[in-house]
Amino acid sequence: MKKLIAALIASLVCATGVYAEDAVNKKCPMDAKDVAADQTSTVSVTVGFCCGKCQGKFEGDAKAKADAVKKYAGSKDSPANTKCVMQPSKDVNKDKTATASMTVGFCCEKCKAEFDKDPKKHIAKVK
Questions:
Q1: Is the pTM of this model over 0.90?
Q2: Which run of H or of E encompasses 100?
Q3: Residue 100 and residue 121: Cα distance in Å, rounded?
Q4: What is the pLDDT along the chain (127 residues), one digit of tens a residue?
Q5: Rounded to 10 degrees, what is the CA torsion of 109, 124, 101, 73?
Q6: Phi and psi of 84, rounded to 5°?
Q7: DSSP string of 21-65, one letter each residue
């Protein structure tokens, strides 16, 4: 009986479209279907700052982090930027960096693989 109940609960969970806990989105950016709990990618970028004060402000600002990930997704440079993300008129001090990450959910492996090939191309679709 317990196995039957567990199976019913599992099927209901799958049918209702459980979202990946850490994903910032509920709909797949590739085709707008509900995300699957087991299909996520984490996009991370290292960004630079002109000073420790800007770095500290950034580390406490979720919107600034999300904006940085969206702007610099796919960058192979570290830091990804040459101007401070908090004070764009100032140059980056390469000793002042922080990593910003965003977990993105997908409906299937195909969409995840397509996104992972070129996150910069698709990151703007993440909502």
A1: no
A2: strand 93-105
A3: 18
A4: 454 444 434 444 444 344 456 899 999 999 999 999 899 999 999 999 999 999 999 999 999 999 999 999 989 899 999 999 999 999 999 999 999 999 999 999 999 999 999 999 999 999 8
A5: 90
A6: -55, 135
A7: TTBS-SB-TTT-PBPPTT-EEEEEEEEEESSHHHHHHHHT-HHHH
